[in-house]
């Protein structure tokens, strides 16, 4: 079904001059909105991923076929009128009835997706399916199924829908102090990475609030960051509380407070409300269908306030530049949410203008840059953020190019693999000096530059992993890796290992920067590579899992028994426990010598086109790994023998 945004621009009218938050019905899930029973589950974005779609921006709601229009459930709570242009005008009597109206549309969509309802439609679907199965689209989809799926790139804790039903008695009395700590540490730990609003502005604003416990932005910051606070910066009042059940209860209650505060101001456009909606969308207590809904509200507010990205070479007075830059940063932060929701298929396509996939238009925009209101660490953070966005845009562009290729065209795929390495190398060479390893890791610069240098390196490894996974074989083709697939798997595993080492180096500098979500993605990649019937890839993957296991066991989240870390540890231990029972490997058949093959279709990139990371991997970053592993059991004699026999292949 098509996706649209409801509003006056397309005929939706809600009676009343000051609509307010509807009364919630009692439900087992405190964050669930009231819904009607549906005969079958409906997805929030049922648009096929391979079909191009237009952004869901203000547009008309086109009328469905007459047969479907007749099935609209009549109700006294709303009315529909078809205009002369063929669109519908919707009048909803009260804000209390909008949820039931949306659910009715969902029921209609579920019926329209049933191919048996209309024989003609069934024939069309069968015809389209037959054509797709014969074309390259099915091959692209097959590659996509092998990807590790992580919902949100920048989320601290990605597990969702774990809303506690237990109330913590001290919540109300401890709330003011807890909000103070959350805002303080958010400015201290996150603003150096994403200075959406400069620290001095937020501190002046926060100190002037009369009731912080009811402000949507304060509550959204706290909901997003409270897990980080409890695990890494435990407030003195809670020092003796180390119970994950209490933490879940506190975050669930904060999410409820945030939702109530946002619902009271959803019709009031303000930059702080947009920022609050973005932060609220990035925590694990919001169901996916609500993430799409809140994102739509944030985009609508940005349009109303004319918060748009900054164009290149746009310059005015300093004061005007600061205001334009702050709006520019807020738009790019909204872009990140749009980017995450689109990649997670929670929304079918970007609803921003320009869209998050329009690389040509986005390349003409000015990414976040320093302003006169920034403190020194925020100046560095703005450069870091800008280059992170830059590599995201490069990755999205390359992904679209890869998906357009025929997976069976070995030469084209090999050339694209070389292009991936070349593009990442160019991006890395264009980084400012403060992010270059040969500058930042010097003894005189290490204290001030190393952390950000490692952080930008983690982003490089992450995007390199996400790109090379597109060259992996389908699930039923893992027995015999081609030379290209073998090379991409090695690149991915090497990037994971380097990422783990740099994450460990960052933790040594700033112990709170653990980010389990990034580790989960890296571990998922190793879990895929360890299943390949290739001795070299499998061995390197298991060695990477050993490194990840050591890192996870030393993280504070593991002491708290955080679900993501505990589950990853259990999975890694299960894989390593099967060692040395290795699968029988089958070498890739080669009808020519390795040298002749490398010199023809699998020629490596030019000497300066691929980044060289070997000195760093063998040097400072890995020195910490020479320490005795904590809680790491000794390998058996059989495992050591297996390792010795395969290290030559590495």
From TrEMBL:
Region feature Disordered, mapped onto this chain: 1-69, 110-141, 579-598
Listed Polar residues bias regions: 130-139
Gene Ontology molecular function: DNA-binding transcription factor activity
Source organism, top-level taxon: Eukaryota
Transmembrane segments: none
UniProt source species: Umbelopsis vinacea
Protein name per Swiss-Prot or TrEMBL: Transcription factor domain-containing protein
Tagged with keyword Nucleus: yes
Compositional bias (Low complexity): 579-594
CDD domains: fungal_TF_MHR
Residue stretches of biased makeup (Basic and acidic residues): 119-129
Ranges annotated as biased composition (Basic residues): 18-27
Record keywords: Nucleus
């Amino acid at each position: 079904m098509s996706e649209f945004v409801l509003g006056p621009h397309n005929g939706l009218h809600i009676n009343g001059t000051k609509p307010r938050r509807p009364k919630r019905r009692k439900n087992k899930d405190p964050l669930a909105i009231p819904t009607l029973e549906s005969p079958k589950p409906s997805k929030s974005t049922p648009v096929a991923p391979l079909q191009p779609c237009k952004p869901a921006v203000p547009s008309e709601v086109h009328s469905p076929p007459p047969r479907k229009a007749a099935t609209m459930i009549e109700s006294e709570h709303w009315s529909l009128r078809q205009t002369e242009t063929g669109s519908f005008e919707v009048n909803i009597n009260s804000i209390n009835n909008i949820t039931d109206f949306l659910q009715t549309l969902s029921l209609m969509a579920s019926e329209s997706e049933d191919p048996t309802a209309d024989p003609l439609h069934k024939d069309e679907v069968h015809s389209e399916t037959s054509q797709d199965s014969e074309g390259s689209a099915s091959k692209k989809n097959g590659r996509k199924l092998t990807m590790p799926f992580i919902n949100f790139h920048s989320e601290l804790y990605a597990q969702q829908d774990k809303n506690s039903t237990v109330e913590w008695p001290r919540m109300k009395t401890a709330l003011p102090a807890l909000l103070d700590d959350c805002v303080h540490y958010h400015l201290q730990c996150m603003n150096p990475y994403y200075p959406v609003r400069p620290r001095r502005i937020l501190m002046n604003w926060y100190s002037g609030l009369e009731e912080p416990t009811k402000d949507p932005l304060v509550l959204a910051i706290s909901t997003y960051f409270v897990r980080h606070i409890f695990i890494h910066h435990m407030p003195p009042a809670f020092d003796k509380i180390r119970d994950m059940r209490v933490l879940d209860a506190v975050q669930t209650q904060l999410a409820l407070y945030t939702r109530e505060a946002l619902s009271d101001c959803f019709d009031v456009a303000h930059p702080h409300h947009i920022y609050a909606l973005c932060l609220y969308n990035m925590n694990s207590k919001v169901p996916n269908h609500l993430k799409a809904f809140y994102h739509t509200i944030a985009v609508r507010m940005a349009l109303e306030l004319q918060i748009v990205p900054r164009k290149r070479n746009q310059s005015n007075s300093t004061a005007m530049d600061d205001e334009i830059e702050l709006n520019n940063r807020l738009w790019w932060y909204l872009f990140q949410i749009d980017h995450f929701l689109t990649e997670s298929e929670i929304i079918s396509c970007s609803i921003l203008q320009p869209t998050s996939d329009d690389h040509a238009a986005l390349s003409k925009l000015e990414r976040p840059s320093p302003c006169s209101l920034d403190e020194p660490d925020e100046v560095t953070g703005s450069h870091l953020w800008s280059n992170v966005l830059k590599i995201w845009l490069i990755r999205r562009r390359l992904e679209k190019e890869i998906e357009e290729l025929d997976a069976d065209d070995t030469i084209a795929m090999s050339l694209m693999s070389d292009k991936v390495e070349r593009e990442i190398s160019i991006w890395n060479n264009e980084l400012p000096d403060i992010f270059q390893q040969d500058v930042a890791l010097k003894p005189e610069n290490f204290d001030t530059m190393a952390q950000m240098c490692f952080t930008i390196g983690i982003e490089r490894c992450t995007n390199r992993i996400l790109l090379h996974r597109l060259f992996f074989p389908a699930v039923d083709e893992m027995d015999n890796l081609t030379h290209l697939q073998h090379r991409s798997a090695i690149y991915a595993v090497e990037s994971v290992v380097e990422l783990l080492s740099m994450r460990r180096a960052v933790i040594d500098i700033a112990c709170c920067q653990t980010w389990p979500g990034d580790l989960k993605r890296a571990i998922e990649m190793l879990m895929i590579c360890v299943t390949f019937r290739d001795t070299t890839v499998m061995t390197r993957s298991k060695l990477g899992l050993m490194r990840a296991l050591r890192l996870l066991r030393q993280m504070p989240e593991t002491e708290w028994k955080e679900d993501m870390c505990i589950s990853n540890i259990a999975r890694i231990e299960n894989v390593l426990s099967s060692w040395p029972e290795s699968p029988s490997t089958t070498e890739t058949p080669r009808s020519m010598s390795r040298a002749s093959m490398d010199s023809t279709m699998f020629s490596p990139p030019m000497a300066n086109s691929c980044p060289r990371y070997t000195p760093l991997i063998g040097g400072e970053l890995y020195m910490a790994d020479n320490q005795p592993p904590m809680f790491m059991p000794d390998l058996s004699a059989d495992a050591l023998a297996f390792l010795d026999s395969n290290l030559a292949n590495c």
